[in-house]
Structures are given as C-alpha cells and as structure tokens.
Amino acid sequence: MKHPIQEMMEQRRQGKKCGIPSYCTANPLALEIILKRAKQLQMPVLIEATANQVNQYGGYTGMLPKDFYEMIQKMAGEIGVPEELIILGGDHLGPLTWQNLPEKEAMEKSVELVYQYAKAGFTKIHLDTSMKVADDPEGLLSTETIARRGAELYKASMKGYEERKAEVPDAMRPVFIIGSEVPIPGGAQEAEDSLSVTSPEAFQDTVATYKHIFEEAGVKEGWKDVVAVVVQPGVEFGDDQVFLYDHDAATVLCSALEKYPEVCFEGHSTDYQSAECLKNMVNDGIAILKVGPALTYGLREALFALSFMEKELVPEDKRADFIETLEKVMLAEPGNWQKHYHGDDKQLALARKYSFSDRARYYIGQPEVTKAIDKLFDNLREYPIPMNMLHQYMPVSYTKVRDGILTLDPKELALDGVANFMLDYEYAVVE
C-alpha cells in the first residue's frame, strides 16, 4: 500500500495544489477532536509526537513510541476511524534530547529512538540531526555532518521497519523528512523583529549533500523515501507575536522546488497563521503544515471561557476553579515555562495564562488539572450554560450551537476550541 503522503506528492506532481496538516500534540482532548474530524471528513490524518514528548525513556508524557501508537489506535477504534486513515509521525528525531552528551553517546540514543519509532508503526520520520552535541567543534555544524548522522538514523529506522514488517506483513513503508529550522520546536524563545527565509542555496545544498551521503552510506535508494525538506519560509510565533507568511518574501525559495519534484517543503511553527496564509503556503509548495501549541491554546482558551461561565453559574463551594488550579500547578513546577517566559511577575503571570507558545500544554494533562477539567464539565452539565452567556464568552461556538452543528455539552464546547484552529488547516490543504 502506497503511503498517503507519497500519494499526495503524486497529486502535486500532476499539478494539484494539495497538502496535509501535521497535528503535533499528545493531549487526549485535542487528539479526540482530531480523530473525530478525520472520521467526519474521511481524510488521512497525520498525528506526530516529538522526541521530547515520546522516546525510549518515556519523554515528558511518560510514553514509549509503542505506547503512543497503541493509545492512538485505541482512541481511533473507539471513535470509529479506519486504521488506513491514520498516519503517525515522529518529529525532530535525533539528538535533540541528548545535546549535552558527546556524539557517540548521543547518536547511540538517537539510533535507538528512531528504531523504536519505526518498529512501533510510525511511518513519517523527521530525521533531525541539525543540533550540536557536547563534543562538536565551535561554529555551525557542516551539512555533511548533519547528513552523515541523518543517514545513520535512516538505517536504524529501516531496521525497525523491517522488523515490524516481519510481524505485520502489510506494514506501510515509512517516508522521511530531512532538514530543520531555527528556532527549536514550540515557538521562538525571544522576541524578534524579523525572520530570515531559508535561501535556495541552503535548500539545494541540503538536498545535494543528503543524496551524496546516502549513496556513500550504501542507501542510495533511500532517497526515494524522502518526501520533504524542512525550511524556514518566514513563519514563526512567540509569546505575543505572530509572523504571518509573506508569499513575496518566500518566492525565490519556493521557486527552487521546481527542480526537485520528488519533494515538497515542510513548514514548522505554522500555528496562528490565517487560513489564507496557510492556503498560500500549500500553493507555494509548503505542503506539510505542522501545528502544535495552537491546538492546546485553543483548548485552554475554551476551558478558560467555560471557567468564566462557571463563576457566573455555579455556587462558589462547588466550583472546579480550573484557572486557579492550572496556575497553582505551574507555579509549583516551573521547569517547563520558567526559561521560556520573561519579564516581571505580572508579565510572567500573563504569559502563563495567554502566551501563544502555550507552555500550559505541559501541565494540562497532570492529574490535578485533569480532575479540575472533569469537575468543570460536570458542573456545567448540572448548571447548564444559557445561550446568551455562551454568546458572550464563546461567540463562534454559539453560532454552531444555534445552527444545530454543536451541542451545549461543555466537553464538546471545549473540543470545539481545538476544532476552530483545525478548520483553517482543512481549508488550506484541499484544492
């Protein structure tokens, strides 16, 4: 069976301006609506885990690659999503988590990481060896070093795939993404004035070097498995800023794709782009659109709105106090936001609540917070939300409820907060 992304690439070579969103989240509520939309639309859905989220040591989710795979399959089965519609991907697979180690150790761990992803059934693998490790020399890594390490990870991935294929004969052959972007996943770490678009020369050098190194490493045919190159097309977001896609600024880069019909571009950090910006990106060759923090931002935004309504409707002694609970947990365990947010106490408090980078996503799945979410839903079922109040706090969802598209159930309203971001991507990737 041909990989859905390979099929997408064939359609693009025939002149069709199509693409696919890449949903990067491990949040169960976000995943639920992602899978429900896949069922409703009967379109392939790409869900990705990052090396930080899921790895051979559990990552920050506590899940191994096989655990994440099984979780998605279980959810899909319960929702009724056909297995053939689900594509699982691994994002930034490489030394990302082990940059403090020397090359030998970092690469040994990276090899095991990609092997486990491929053996578990992930079929879209981002080989990202762009980050320096402890014993790398000063200055930027050479493209040759990046490609050499990438070829090593390709071999490990294919070993995992072959072992899976021995157990599951119709297992789908994985496709691969090469290249990386700056800054690291999750949004810009500092405020920026502008962004530099990847030069055509840098893109061409990446392709040429990988082709050469793959041949040198004895995996020349592996280039046929490469479907995309990560570039910086000029999009990014930080705490309170979003750099929107500029077609004119990316024209020279995107024109370079004409010589390489076998690949498209993968755009990272496309969160918060407008629907038209996303559509322009797909039309220009940036056919894989990665989105992550915006999904949990939409969920957090909806949960905040529900909390504000709870304060109006529910007696004080019965309230879930989700907003306060989330803040308490974030303050008690600052490790996942402290280095990323800047300013005085007031600015930090606002960032914890409202930042586009949404570091709250690291906490929203913690037991105390999920308990508050469940109580919030229960409370608003006991004290139903009046339509006029819904209009005040969730006007977009109000319209859907009014028109019979959505129910007043608080959980469905929370999921709709995620769906509102997904709609822009669904619009962008269909010609």
Describe the fold and architecture.
The chain is an alpha/beta fold. The protein has 2 domains: 288 residues, Alpha-Beta Barrel (TIM Barrel), CATH 3.20.20.70; 120 residues, putative tagatose 6-phosphate kinase domain like (GI Alpha 1, domain 2-like, Orthogonal Bundle), CATH 1.10.400.20. Helix 6 links the parallel strand 5 and strand 6. Helix 2 crosses helix 3, helix 2 packs across helix 15 and helix 8 runs parallel beside helix 15. The radius of gyration is 22 Å and the shape is globular.
Strand content: 5-15%
User: How many domains, as an integer?
Assistant: 2
Q: Sheet bearing the most strands, described?
A: 8 strands, parallel, barrel
Low-confidence stretches: 182-191
Q: Which architecture of the largest domain per CATH?
A: Alpha-Beta Barrel
Q: Per the principal axes of the C-alpha atoms, what is the gross shape?
A: globular
Oligomer: single chain
